[in-house]
Amino acid sequence: MSISTRAPRLAPPAPTDDSRRRRRPKRLALALAAPLLVLGLAACDPTPPQESVRAHVNESRRAAGVHAVGDDLVVRLKAQAWADRLAANGSLSHSTLSSGLDGVPWVAVAENVGRGSSIRSVHDGYMGSSRHRANILDRRWDRMGAGHAVAADGTVYTVQVFVDLG
């Protein structure tokens, strides 16, 4: 003969003021997270200076009969990070071209880095250099990322990263 015991089944407890209070932090967190999500999505858009860098490129391309290049978020983030670094260091150098392009199916990449007193002056410098001008006017490029940073001394740095998606 076996003996077994079972605990009596109890009905679930009725909601109390305490259980309602536990839900409030979740609602509060959601209410606070919504504006952050909107700000995060807005950060995906180019800043006015980044858009100005790309607009100068596309003006030059149109004048030469070359199609405009579109913006690419990942490529722009790479260009911006490099522009920030150049401005912080106060010097010009090229990045490792493939670095920071994870997830971008590129076939070819090029980069222009420059500094001057304004975005326009840097762009004019690019167009006055045969190698930089060739990058800007190359028909292969589908997308670009533009970076812009201003050093403590007011020097403007721009970075243009061009990609051919194949």
Q: Which outline best applies?
A: globular
**Termini distance?**
79 Å
Order of helices and strands: HHEHEHHEE
Helix content: 40-55%
Low-confidence segments, given as residue ranges, are 1-8, 36-42
Largest sheet, spatial ordering of strands: 1-3-4-2
Counting helices, strands and paired strands, the structural category is alpha+beta
Rg value: 27 Å
What quaternary form is this? single chain
Mean pLDDT: 84
Number of strands: 4
- The fraction of residues in strands falls at 15-25%
In DSSP terms, counting alpha (H) and pi (I) runs of 4 or more, how many helices?
A: 5
Largest sheet: 4 strands, mixed
Explain the overall architecture.
With 166 residues, this protein is of the alpha+beta class. It is built from 5 helices and 4 strands; from the N terminus they run H-H-E-H-E-H-H-E-E. It has helices at residues 17-42, 48-63, 73-89, 119-127, 130-137, and strands at residues 70-71, 108-116, 143-150, 156-164. Strands 1-3-4-2 form a 4-stranded mixed beta sheet. A hairpin with a 5-residue loop joins strand 3 (143-150) and strand 4. Helix 2 packs parallel to helix 4 (119-127). Mean pLDDT is 84; it is low at 1-8 and 36-42.
List keywords for this structure.
alpha+beta, 166 residues, 4-stranded mixed β-sheet, 46% helix, disordered N terminus, 4 strands, single chain, 5 helices
